[in-house]
């Protein structure tokens, strides 16, 4: 009888250790995959849930960005926009009055970054 | 965290103004601020703050995407510089122009095709797609 109890306790202990080990592995992998997408990294579980959700930055594909940019710069003669790996580079001329509207338009296309090399007249 | 400090005034203003779905994420030396508002003035104010912190938007360290375009079923005003707004057969500038909406004209937003284009109807019954950036909720 005593032996049975001891055996049962041993089973339970190893089960707990095993589940703890599996649990810690599970927690680790999503953190690794997300480490370069967000710098607001903490180890609290609450933050882990937000990281998997919409907080990761969505960047448009280059082809899709190029299509959208064609529409966006159409009304700004003298402005050229190029796309490389999500980075939009603006060159050419613009007036200071028109610049915010162009930037609003560019910022809504989900680029990775916007490099503004425009000459402001 | 440094960028969130740099643009703190902007983030605070967005929170105070009740911008919905507000998300602030810093990644790879760029701060991404996304959110939605039904008030075009809120968006303009946030952009004024952005322009004040980073004059002429030269730093390339912020993507500010505040969506103030009109929701389906609501009225929107055409906010072109001064010209008419092209109404197109489909969502894209490669699509045929089927009509024009005047500067400051108020139109009805029927559906939102995507982030850039909405299907609208004018008071004269003309229907087609226009670029969201030129619409502001009224």
What is the topological layout?
The complex is a heterodimer of chains A (121) and B (138).
Chain A: H1 2-34, H2 45-52, H3 62-73, E1 79-84, E2 87-94, H4 99-107, E3 113-116, E4 119-120
Parallel strand pairs in A: 2-3, 2-4
Antiparallel strand pairs in A: 1-2
Chain B: H1 2-6, H2 8-16, E1 20-27, E2 30-36, H3 40-53, E3 62-67, E4 75-78, E5 85-88, E6 97-101, E7 106-112, E8 117-121, E9 127-131, E10 135-137
Parallel strand pairs in B: 2-3
Antiparallel strand pairs in B: 1-2, 4-7, 4-10, 5-6, 7-8, 8-9
Care to describe what's here?
The complex is a heterodimer of chains A (121) and B (138). By secondary structure, chain A is α/β, with parallel strands linked by helices. Chain A folds into two domains: 2-52, no CATH class; 62-120, 2-Layer Sandwich (Histidine-containing Protein, Chain: A), CATH 3.30.1340.30. Chain A has four helices and four strands. Chain A is elongated and about 85 Å long. Mean pLDDT of chain A is 73; it is low at 23-53. Chain B has 138 residues and is of the alpha+beta class. Chain B folds into two domains: 2-67, Alpha-Beta Plaits, CATH 3.30.70; 75-137, SH3 Domains (SH3 type barrels, Roll). Helix content of chain B is 20%, strand content 39%. In chain B, strand 8 and strand 9 (127-131) form a beta hairpin. In chain B, helix 2 packs antiparallel against helix 3. The mean pLDDT of chain B is 93. The interface between A and B is medium-sized, with 35 and 28 residues.
